[in-house]
Amino acid sequence: MPELPEVETTLRGIKPFVLHQKICSVVVRHYGLRWPIPHDLQAMLTGQTIQSATRRGKYLLFMTAHGTLIIHLGMSGSMRVLTTATPPNKHDHVDLVFANHVCLRYTDPRRFGAFLWTTENPNSHPLLAHLGPEPLEKILTGKYLWEQAQQRKVPIKSFIMDSKIVVGVGNIYANEALFVAGIHPKKSAGKISLIQFNALAKAIKKILQAAIKQGGTTLKDFVGSNGKKGYFKVHLQAYGRGNLPCLVCQNPLKEIRLGQRSTVYCSRCQKS
Ligand SMILES: [Zn+2]
Predict the structure, then answer these.
(1) Using one digit for the tens of pLDDT, what is the confidence trace for 192-223?
(2) Which 3-state string (H, E, C) describes 153-219?
(3) Are 23 and 62 in contact (CB under 8 A)?
(4) pLDDT of residue 226
(5) 161 alpha carbon to ligand 1 midpoint, in Å?
(6) Residues acting as catalytic residues
(7) Is the Cβ–Cβ distance between 107 and 89 less than 8 Å?
(8) Right CATH for 4-124 from 3.20.190.10, 3.40.220.10, 1.10.268.10, 3.40.50.300
(9) pLDDT > 70: what percent of the chain?
């Protein structure tokens, strides 16, 4: 599933080709994404110029003078910059064709993504209105997390994966950040000290920044490629290493299910 670093890398890859460019046509080959693509999307977008291209959580926002296109990559979505001469494949559901002859093509085999349109402030859209702060911005601090966690009994791993608390901390990154911060994933959020939350906020930023930096090496893949992109190969210390020796103390890592997600931790290094 594309996580925040992949979405950020997608934005950085496509933005130079679409910003300040005029959309001359919109091709929708399949309207049935997670929510149906609005049938008037062509009418709304044709002739519009992209005034800004930004990200909020895992949503891409393309703003025009008349409204904002909200895109989510879902489970398997990707976007590439092609020319209109490139014939579409089976899962290429949407093309935005620009006056500079760029074709921004959306591919999504599992069709769990979204293409939505709003004329309101996109941050007030029901999908975005309740999102917590961006993890890489200054607002995400240990103190903020500590304040949000007061009286909360939810396991810390579920807490940091809750997009109402902070956006963009997917399962892999939650595992890694808790390992780095030395916090047991099942520990109640409300029982974690400010010092531990400071370490956790720092670890979240570090692991996401490393993944985005890694993604930077794949930017060229957004132009003219066949679009086979996997996870960024960040060096993972916990996730995917169940029963392997802890890289700090050599104790075998434990693997459990927590909130239906694979959770790997070291029972010595991560205190409950
Ligand atoms: Zn250990």
Answers:
(1) 999 999 999 999 999 999 988 887 666 666 66
(2) CCEHHHHHCCCCCCCCCCHHHHHHHHHHHCECCCCEHHHCCHHHHHHHHHHHHHHHHHHHHHHHCCH
(3) no
(4) 53
(5) 23
(6) 2-3, 58, 261
(7) yes
(8) 3.20.190.10
(9) 93
